[in-house]
Amino acid sequence: MKYFGLKFSVTATLIISACLVTVMVRAEDKECYDCHKEARQRFQKEFVHPPVEDEDCSACHEDHGESNSLKLTAEAPELCADCHDLDDDDLKSAHKNYPLGEANCYSCHNPHASDNEKLIRTVQHSPFEDRDCESCHGEPQDKIETIEDGAKLCYECHDAKNDKKNVHPPVEDGECTSCHSPHASDNDKQLIFKGGDLCYQCHDRKDDKAVVHKPVAEGLCVKCHNPHSSDNDFFLVKPFPKSFYPPYKKGIYALCAICHKDTVSNLAQRYGAKTGFIRNNENLHARHVNNKKKGRNCKACHDVHSGDQEKQIRNEVPFGRRYKYPFKYTKFKDKKGGRCVVGCHKPRVYGPAVIQGSN
Ligand code: HEC
Ligand code: HEC
Ligand code: HEC
Ligand code: HEC
Ligand code: HEC
Ligand code: HEC
Ligand code: HEC
Ligand code: HEC
Ligand code: HEC
Ligand code: HEC
Ligand code: HEC
């Protein structure tokens, strides 16, 4: 037994150390750019920070190992103060003598490269671009102060963003800087993150099901939602009913009509309409949706963000408060049309060539 145990542990040690060697060799072999090829491209700007030019990435980054997440050797301003003397007179006067002791240096500078001098980020807020620090900070003090707090500062120069019926909570709370840099960023409108990543800082992902609605996949949340406030539910830019069974009226699906004109404008046309959801000549979109007593919302069948089945069709349809109907959808591969097995009615087949009355 003892002998076997010893043999086992020797073998195990050999295996484990072999693995460790492989891992270490792999990590040592690879430079940052071996894996981050697109970063090399992105850092090719007119002005490149010398440590980046020298590929001295570890001046600021720790090796992230298997975690694959951002790991800096320190936070700003310490990270930068390693090489830049914050008490240097030139440095101070470049910052108009505003104190940098608590500065988030990369709220204005890109740490890698920029097309602007002094590594200033590309999209500059107009008063910052004019270097008019005083308009927001007043005269330099020992500590960074602003002349007004939160949204009040922004409303000194901008129209109110909380003037519609439904206000997005961070706007209500005056947290404009949770989305916009007051100084500069590399994204349009000085947003601190691009596209959907901005919203995903606070919300669950909306692109996590198999079939993702194209504008959601592309992070175009603001094509449908106003980030500030709106008179519509869910801060939508155009009306879209909240209820599952809204009585049909023209215009209630204006949101979808922004991009799906044909499907929505044909809802009044029971026969011969331009839609793929058709049975013989009958427009099944109209049949389901256009009902003056109990119409079916688009979301009864399609998920607005991402769905489990083709065409963002959902897996189940809520019924009442507690029940759910299963929804099995098969799109025909070889011809137009498909088959719906749902709890709402017996299984049905649709398509332009389907004979009335057949399944
Ligand atoms: C073996 C491949 C590999 C090597 C070598 C590597 N990385 Fe990564 N790194 C990744 C992957 C994969 C991710 C996660 C996907 C992503 O965000 O790009 C990642 C993520 C990151 C992130 C976070 C990205 C973000 O947006 O939050 C940073 C920063 C980073 N790496 C920097 C470095 C630096 C600096 C080095 C060199 C010291 C390095 N990496 C070496 C593969 C690697
Ligand atoms: C002077 C410090 C510094 C150096 C040198 C540096 N980085 Fe970074 N890097 C940062 C900071 C700070 C962030 C995160 C903050 C940000 O960009 O908003 C970051 C973020 C990143 C990210 C994720 C965000 C992005 O822009 O893609 C990657 C990838 C990355 N660095 C790669 C590298 C590589 C590769 C090198 C070496 C060629 C390098 N960095 C050198 C400071 C540095
Ligand atoms: C490893 C050393 C090192 C670190 C860390 C470092 N820098 Fe630099 N930085 C340099 C060198 C070297 C220069 C070029 C010489 C100079 O202008 O002082 C430079 C230049 C700059 C410039 C441009 C100055 C000009 O005249 O064009 C800016 C802006 C800057 N750094 C900002 C930062 C910020 C922000 C950080 C922290 C994220 C940082 N640096 C961290 C070494 C470093
Ligand atoms: C509020 C925005 C902002 C912040 C925060 C900020 N900087 Fe700057 N920085 C600037 C501006 C603006 C300039 C001058 C650019 C110009 O001349 O066009 C500058 C210039 C510089 C320069 C060049 C100095 C010179 O002699 O020309 C360096 C280096 C620098 N900053 C480093 C830092 C470091 C390190 C931090 C963090 C401790 C930091 N900055 C924080 C806006 C900022
Ligand atoms: C449009 C208004 C506005 C202008 C113009 C402006 N700032 Fe700021 N600044 C702010 C706000 C708001 C904050 C607080 C940031 C936050 O809440 O995240 C801030 C924060 C700072 C900070 C500390 C925290 C950080 O993000 O680095 C420094 C340093 C700073 N500003 C320097 C400057 C300098 C220097 C200028 C001129 C070159 C300037 N600011 C111009 C609004 C402004
Ligand atoms: C001192 C006046 C002033 C203050 C204070 C101010 N801004 Fe601005 N802002 C401007 C000017 C001027 C422009 C450029 C003209 C325009 O597009 O409205 C601008 C542009 C913008 C833009 C881009 C607009 C566009 O359509 O491209 C955003 C976003 C913005 N500001 C956000 C803010 C936020 C957030 C605050 C508060 C932290 C703020 N501003 C405070 C003067 C100001
Ligand atoms: C939840 C994130 C978020 C918050 C919080 C936020 N914004 Fe915005 N803001 C955005 C986005 C995203 C856009 C771009 C919209 C677009 O492209 O259609 C934008 C656009 C803007 C614009 C330019 C277009 C316009 O509507 O005038 C201004 C100015 C602006 N915001 C100011 C503010 C002010 C002031 C506050 C605080 C009261 C604020 N924002 C709070 C996300 C936000
Ligand atoms: C700084 C955090 C933050 C950011 C960033 C943010 N939100 Fe929100 N949002 C909230 C909070 C808090 C609520 C209220 C609580 C909730 O319903 O999740 C909310 C609510 C919502 C609601 C209503 C939810 C409901 O069930 O009534 C929508 C829609 C929404 N946000 C969309 C967006 C979009 C689109 C973006 C990106 C442009 C975004 N949010 C970015 C914090 C944020
Ligand atoms: C094609 C239009 C459209 C796009 C694009 C879109 N949404 Fe929505 N979103 C809606 C509609 C419609 C609702 C209301 C759903 C309902 O009535 O149940 C909604 C509801 C929400 C809600 C509240 C309910 C929930 O599902 O959590 C949040 C949060 C939200 N969206 C965030 C986002 C984010 C983040 C993005 C971008 C990644 C995005 N939306 C893109 C149309 C859209
Ligand atoms: C900002 C534009 C935009 C808005 C608003 C929009 N969609 Fe879409 N939608 C698209 C795009 C783009 C596609 C992909 C079309 C393609 O691939 O041919 C798509 C595809 C679809 C599909 C799949 C169709 C197919 O042929 O595969 C459905 C179902 C759908 N959308 C439903 C809706 C519903 C329901 C609404 C309203 C809540 C809506 N859309 C609002 C842009 C939009
Ligand atoms: C009863 C379920 C159901 C309802 C309710 C429904 N759809 Fe559809 N929709 C479908 C099916 C099934 C398809 C696939 C048709 C095919 O095979 O091409 C489809 C296809 C689509 C397409 C692709 C283009 C087309 O017209 O064929 C769009 C866009 C679309 N629907 C949008 C909407 C919108 C907007 C609403 C609400 C006004 C809505 N749907 C309501 C089941 C539904």
Model description:
This protein is α+β, with helices and mostly antiparallel strands and 359 residues long. It has helices spanning 2-29, 32-35, 37-42, 50-53, 78-81, 89-94, 126-129, 134-137, 150-155, 169-172, 195-200, 214-217, 254-257, 261-265, 284-289, and strands at residues 47-48, 113-114, 123-124, 166-167, 184-185, 211-212, 229-230, 278-279, 282-283, 306-307, 316-319, 323-331, 338-342, 348-350. The protein has two domains: 45-192, no CATH class; 211-324. Helix content is 26%, strand content 11%. The strands form six sheets. A four-stranded antiparallel sheet has the order 11-12-13-14, with no helix packed on it. The protein has a two-stranded antiparallel sheet with strand order 1-2. Strand 13 (338-342) and strand 14 form a beta hairpin. The model is unreliable at 1-27 (pLDDT under 50). It binds heme C (11 copies). The site of one heme C has 20 residues, from helix 6.
Features:
binds heme C; alpha+beta; 15 helices; 2 domains; single chain; 4-stranded antiparallel sheet; disordered N terminus; 359 residues; two-stranded antiparallel sheet
Strand order of the largest sheet: 11-12-13-14
Number of strands: 14
Bound molecules: heme C
Number of domains: 2
Tell me the series of helices and strands, N- to C-terminal.
HHHEHHHEEHHHEHEHEHEHHEEHEEEEE
Distance between the termini: 70 Å
Short description:
With 359 residues, the chain is an alpha+beta fold. The chain has 15 helices and 14 strands. It has two domains: 148 residues, no CATH class; 114 residues.
